[in-house]
Each structure stands twice: as structure tokens, then as C-alpha cells.
Design goal:
183 residues, mainly alpha, two-stranded parallel ribbon, elongated
């Protein structure tokens, strides 16, 4: 893959593409029937007569492409990146709310400093409890083996349908709580 990518980069330039195309036309491109030739001649030809390959792709270029491919494969998938970004955004919103509440508590004059600190710490502690590590849900492709799938500790195998149903149930509860929805 790395060699192909390096060669493709070289072939983007018209001149180098022409050189590569011209190097493919040589007397060794047509394979003759070697059965009718003597063995000593075939051996000698194999040793000495080889096409003069044009080396426009260097080992450094291939190594660079290998490095790029390795970095590319190590990146998390787009869905994982989006999920992390959503989580970070929610955490930022929650922290802003806590900061606002903390400033309101800090501005109250009838409270002692110790009780203010305790209340502020209580707010942060509550948010920290919400953001603790949850179970990782692994979407299983084998639907028969979802319930008793052997998974590492802290993970749970689920199927897509189950995830969709649980999300829909939670959304329905939220709508009913707000007072909307059908009756």
C-alpha cells in the first residue's frame, strides 16, 4: 500500500509519469517461449538480462508513506471522535452552570465562608459523580450471542435494535416529563 501511494504521488507529475510509461516498453516486456532454448542460455539470460528499472520511488518516500498509513490507522474512527466531542461539550455546559451557581453562592453575605466552600464543593462533587466512567457498550453483530457474549470487564455487548429501543424509551420519558407528547 505504501509503495502504491508513493508511486501514485510520483505519477502525479507529467514528466515522471512519462518516464515510467516509457520504461515499460523494452525488449523484456514480451516473454518468449524458453522451452526451445538451451538450458545454459536460459540461465545466463536470467542472470544478466534484466530490464533497467527506473527508480523514481525512493526508500525514503516509501518509509514516509508507511509512517502516514500507520498514523492514519491509529486514529479513532469518526464516530468515536464525535462522541468524545459531544461528551466534552456537555461537560463544558455543566461546568458553566456550576460556575454560575458558585458565583451566586460566593456573593451571599449572610453565609459563613466555610459553609460557602462546602456548598461549592458539593456542586462539583455531584457533577463529578455524573461523569464517572460508565460501561462501554459494544455493538454485537451476532444477535444470538448478545446476552451471554464474553466481553472484557466494564463492557457490555448489545445489539443495535436494543440500543435504539432504549434511546426511544428515554426520549419518550423526557417528553412526558415536560408535559408534551400524546395523551
Amino acid at each position: 500500500m505504501a509503495e502504491t501511494r508513493a508511486l501514485a504521488k510520483v505519477m502525479l507529475r507529467k514528466k515522471s509519469r512519462g518516464i515510467i510509461m516509457d520504461s515499460t516498453y523494452n525488449r523484456y516486456a514480451v516473454h518468449e517461449d524458453k522451452a526451445s532454448l538451451p538450458d545454459w542460455f536460459v540461465e545466463d539470460e536470467a542472470r544478466h538480462f534484466r530490464p533497467n528499472n527506473v527508480h523514481l520511488v525512493t526508500k525514503e518516500m516509501i518509509a514516509e508513506e508507511r509512517k502516514f498509513l500507520k498514523e492514519y490507522n491509529e486514529r479513532p474512527s469518526k464516530k468515536v471522535q464525535e462522541a468524545k466531542a459531544r461528551k466534552k461539550k456537555r461537560l463544558g455546559k455543566a461546568m458553566n452552570k456550576i460556575k454560575n451557581k458558585a458565583t451566586i453562592i460566593a456573593e451571599q453575605s449572610e453565609m459563613s465562608e466555610g459553609s460557602k466552600m462546602k456548598q461549592i464543593q458539593k456542586l462539583y462533587k455531584k457533577e463529578k459523580a455524573k461523569t464517572k466512567e460508565d460501561k462501554k457498550y459494544v455493538v454485537s453483530r451476532n444477535f444470538n450471542n448478545v446476552g451471554n457474549a464474553k466481553t472484557p470487564r466494564g463492557t457490555k455487548a448489545v445489539d443495535r435494535r436494543m440500543k435504539k429501543d432504549t434511546r426511544a424509551a428515554k426520549a419518550k420519558k423526557r417528553r412526558e416529563k415536560k408535559g408534551g407528547g400524546r395523551r
